[in-house]
Specification:
434 residues; Rossmann fold; six-stranded mixed sheet; five-stranded parallel sheet; 20 helices; 17% strand
Length: 434
């Protein structure tokens, strides 16, 4: 499969080059030359497949011959060493739990797959690969664990000062080895901008072999499509067929992956994009102009993105036809006060503890249900374990959060981080010392 830049469809590269280059030099994003349609028999018989088996079929369709099937199977099996269960709530809606991996966030799917893809392609090279990643919360921890100890890699994680939770920061700063955390005095958008500038800096590219672990990297999105298919398989077992996915959205990689699944033939009736106060996309889909803004800090911090990179991929998937896009995607935004109320409502009604991102998705699910009454199965993606956000919950709920042993162990580790301003000159100077 060849991959082209969203800014120039004539510029096409191999899967390997798309993974390692991460960002085309024309500042577009890589997309598959075509979205492959899966054989209808695959969907008809998906109930008989395991998570790993269906994921292999999806990956093979996109990657094609770039990785032999036996090797790709090993990568998929190693990536999916944990489950993604669908849980039914008392109101009849569902939650897709994506936080059962090592870093307790949905980003584990993409980070583990990507690190193993990169290790596979670079195993015969004697070159150190420098992985740059900006995080607004969960990406960094997943990437750190996904790449921890991977030969011939160095990972540099930029995160905004004071804008990640204490547990998230521990996951970023307690690794050492080939993982370096940088606390940037700025926003996530500042961090993301620093990474993008580095990729287009000739001085740095002469010195380092750069790639990115953000959702701008196409290898992050492919495995995220796996759990949409797996959710569909589980919902069939519940007797559900008409499915609406509600996706808490920040940089919009998760929704992009769902749309990949849809374009490949997954029967999805509708998608709902749920955002916090960073509402660039909901405003656009509700008739206003698309105007990126400075990120606003909220309690659902992993979604604090004012200029979502993957929106250009979504537009590209629909040939920039916004009217067609609106037929499939509805978007809502909710503020922190509404999110706090939702957390308590979910707990009181269902005895279910939802992280703030999940609560935003649940709010959007309730709004969509009220506006589009039906018997559709509405599935909210639950993207992170609630233990990562203790300060968000009232004491009565916080005391009932089960803290995984892996989190308690982090508290006894030394922290290692570099503090930088949001100046690109400072970041470049740091990279040039590598």
């Amino acid at each position: 499969m060849k991959f082209y830049s969203t800014n120039n469809k004539q510029l096409s590269v191999s899967f390997k080059d798309a993974v390692f280059n991460s960002l085309p030099r024309d500042r577009g994003l890589y997309m598959p030359l075509s979205i492959p349609k899966l054989n209808p028999n695959f969907i008809d018989n998906i109930h008989a497949l395991s998570f790993q088996e269906l994921a292999l079929e999806v990956a093979r369709a996109i990657i094609e011959d770039d990785i032999p099937s036996d090797d790709l199977k090993k990568i998929v099996d190693d990536t999916l060493s944990f489950d993604a269960p669908v849980v039914k709530l008392g109101d009849g809606s569902y939650v897709l739990e994506l936080f059962h991996g090592p870093s307790l966030a949905f980003k584990d799917f993409g980070a583990r797959f990507m690190s193993r893809i990169m290790a596979y392609f670079s195993q015969k090279n004697d070159v150190t690969l420098d992985v740059l990643v900006a995080t607004s919360g969960d990406t960094g921890g997943a990437v750190a664990l996904g790449f921890d100890g991977v030969p011939n890699t160095r990972v540099t994680i930029l995160y905004p000062k004071g804008k990640v939770s204490p547990v998230q920061e521990l996951q970023l700063c307690t690794n050492g080895g080939n993982i370096q955390a940088i606390e940037v005095d700025g926003t996530f958008d500042d961090c993301q901008d620093l990474v993008k500038k580095a990729f287009n800096d000739d001085d740095i590219n002469k010195k380092l072999t750069l790639t990115s672990a953000n959702s701008i990297n196409i290898s992050r999105l492919i495995p995220q499509s796996f759990y949409y298919f797996n959710a569909y398989r589980q919902l069939l077992q519940e007797g559900e067929k008409d499915i609406v996915f509600v996706v808490p959205s920040g940089n919009f990689g998760n929704l992009t992956a769902g749309l990949f699944a849809y374009k490949m033939g997954l029967p999805v009736k509708h998608f709902v994009a749920a955002t916090n106060a960073n509402d660039v996309v909901p405003r656009f889909l509700n008739g206003q102009s698309y105007e990126p803004q400075a990120a606003i800090q909220t309690i659902s911090n992993a979604m604090d993105v004012g200029n979502p990179s993957n929106w250009s991929r979504i537009l590209d998937l629909f040939g920039n036809d916004v009217d067609e896009l609106k037929k499939l995607i509805t978007a809502y935004s909710f503020n922190d006060d509404e999110t706090h109320v939702a957390i308590e409502q979910i707990y009181q009604k269902d005895n279910y503890i939802a992280c703030p991102h999940t609560a935003v998705a649940w709010l959007a699910a309730q709004r969509y249900r009220s506006e589009q009454p039906s018997d559709d199965a509405i599935v909210s993606l639950s993207t992170a374990h609630p233990c990562k956000f203790p300060d968000v919950f009232p004491e009565t709920i916080r005391d009932n959060i089960e803290i995984p042993d892996t989190v308690n162990a982090l508290k006894n580790k030394d922290q290692n981080k570099v503090k930088l301003s949001n100046s690109y000159d400072d970041f470049k100077a740091f990279l040039m010392t590598y």
